[in-house]
Design a protein that fits this description.
The protein has a single domain, classed as 3-Layer(aba) Sandwich (Rossmann fold). Helices cover 29% and strands 18% of the residues. The chain has 13 helices and eleven strands. α6 packs across α7 and α12 packs across α13.
Length: 398
């Protein structure tokens, strides 16, 4: 593996180009994963509203859901690694948020929001810190969930998000067999690269958590140890050769998927609106032996009580697993998109408070990792108690 030079800001500039803007609709129509596509809708940017007064956290749930007290640094890097299928080298950009010793340059402008806490190239704090990986969805971008990434960094986490080249907004609606394993190897390669980084490597510590939205939720589950039903995929390709995973499905792809994509460094998984449950067959997700948080949304077909029919949830059997349903929310509620583009496809109805959806995402993700990995009894009490809002449904395996 060799290190490439930083991207020098070209990624942030490129996401605002005309080409990116014109392809936003592709992201929405494709969904993320192999879910049914959404329908087009008017995209209205909400006007800036006055900031409410900062009264500070009222209780521990507020503390976990609000930004932490640490300054946050932000950098754009890239890595080149050898593909696992022997098809040469692969170069991907990635984004990093990290606890900082002070402020750096500007607050970076991301695809759907401007950073509130993070500043560019801020000096790193003294580590190590726990680490969180985030995987974007099908036809997504690495900076689609910066609210969550920035939040974790402000609470003392190193966070990174790879760009899954070949499966982004600018790539168009293409998905071939190699994407199903390259997304996972992207995450592992970035973690390797970050651990070896001369300035940021000392910050990377444990516990380590892998997270993802939609197709990224699938990616996170493979890295957590879910095994693919390769025989089922092959049989399905015989009857439905147009299934995306069947395109270029060859012996190399079969061997990689049979070997599994588990990265043993990860200690828990946060999966948001995951697709592709059928790829794991009837039992592949049960092979995960680390804590799993499944977050879903009613707008994706999960009305109250839907855990009883959730293919992922029914297969999981870990005592520390948790299922959280955001009632009234949509597929994109877990990302930055719906706050700034309330009419975007697969966002919830306009009357659903998208800022509240982001709060639930931050709160339950943060409380889950603190409870399951850091022996935080107060965080566990939040998860085990009655949800603080009737728009939530929380189900535990315990």
């Amino acid at each position: 593996m060799r290190r490439a030079l930083p991207v020098n800001g070209c990624y942030l500039r490129s996401v605002m180009t005309r080409a990116f803007a014109s392809s936003l609709l592709i992201l929405a129509l494709a969904g993320c994963g192999d879910d049914d596509s959404g329908t087009s809708a008017d995209m209205a940017v909400e006007p800036d509203a006055p900031e409410p007064p900062d009264m500070g956290p009222r209780d521990y749930a507020d503390e976990l859901a609000w930004y932490g007290e640490l300054p946050v640094g932000f950098q754009e890097l890239e890595v080149t690694y050898t593909r696992p299928d022997g098809d040469g080298e692969r170069t991907i950009p990635y984004l990093v948020w990290y606890p900082a010793a002070g402020e750096g340059g500007i607050h970076p402008r991301h695809a759907f929001r401007r950073a509130e806490v993070a500043t560019l190239d801020a000096p790193p704090a003294a580590g190590p810190f726990p680490t969180l990986a985030f995987s974007h969805g099908h036809l997504g971008v690495a900076d689609v969930s910066t609210d969550l990434c920035e939040h974790f960094a402000s609470h003392g986490w190193v966070v990174f998000s790879p760009t899954h080249v070949g499966n982004t907004t600018s790539d168009g609606d293409t998905r071939t067999a190699d994407i199903y394993y390259l997304r996972s190897t992207d995450v592992s390669a970035v973690l390797d690269d970050l651990e070896a980084h001369p300035d940021l490597g000392a910050l990377v510590g444990s516990p380590m958590v892998v997270s993802g939205h939609s197709f990224g939720g699938y990616t996170a589950l493979t890295l957590a140890g879910a095994t693919l039903d390769v025989d089922g995929i092959i049989a399905s390709c015989e009857t439905d050769p147009d299934d995306p995973i069947c395109v270029d499905f060859d012996s190399e792809a079969e061997a990689i998927l049979r070997a599994g994509l588990r990265d043993e460094r990860f200690d828990a998984v946060l999966s948001m609106a995951a697709g592709d449950a059928r790829r794991f067959g009837d039992s592949g997700v049960a092979d995960i032996d680390i804590p799993v948080l499944l977050m879903v949304a009613e707008g994706d077909g999960y009305p109250a009580g839907a855990h009883a029919e959730d293919a992922y949830w029914n297969t999981l059997d870990g005592p520390n697993d948790l299922w959280v349903d955001l009632l009234g929310a949509g597929h994109q509620t877990f990302t930055d998109i719906c706050v700034s583009l309330s009419g975007f496809p697969r966002c919830p109805p306009r009357e659903y408070p998208s800022e509240l959806g982001l709060r639930w995402t931050r709160l339950y993700a943060h409380a889950f990792v603190r409870s399951r990995l850091m022996d935080d009894a107060d965080a566990a009490a939040i998860l085990e108690g009655s949800p603080e809002d009737p728009s939530l449904e929380v189900v535990s395996k315990m």
